[in-house]
Design a protein that fits this description.
It contains 1 helix and 10 strands. It is globular and about 40 Å long. FE2/S2 (inorganic) cluster binds next to loops. Its cofactor is [2Fe-2S] cluster.
């Protein structure tokens, strides 16, 4: 796994990523949906495992799950599981911030 720096620090990430507003990030052609929920970050594959819709166009509910805009499948952001088991788990990506930057692990 390689850590890819996407922001200079956590403050910059907090400034650029709004709570519960999914953001599409593209790294080396890989589409990743980055979400900040209650000031914690999670990253999952952007393509819905049901039929490929972009999850970054979806919404985040109060439980911190992301809901696909197409057929409303609902995925946990931490483990990537669809809550009713209707489609495969999403790939998840670790996120970390330290003195040197804000990173996603690819
Ligand atoms: S494409 Fe996401 S729920 Fe169908």
């Amino acid at each position: 796994m390689e850590w890819i720096k996407i922001f200079g620090n956590k403050s910059e990430a907090d400034h650029r990523i709004m709570n519960d507003k999914p953001q599409l990030i593209i790294i080396d052609g890989k589409r990743i949906c980055l979400v900040r929920h209650k000031d914690e970050y999670a990253a999952v594959q952007d393509d819905c495992s049901h039929n490929g819709e972009s999850l970054s166009k979806g919404i985040v509910n109060y439980l911190g799950e992301i809901i696909c805009p197409w057929h409303n499948y609902c995925f946990e952001l931490k483990g990537g599981k669809e809550i009713k088991g209707r489609s495969p788990d999403l790939k998840t990506f670790p996120v970390k911030a330290d003195d040197t930057g804000f990173f996603i692990g690819i």
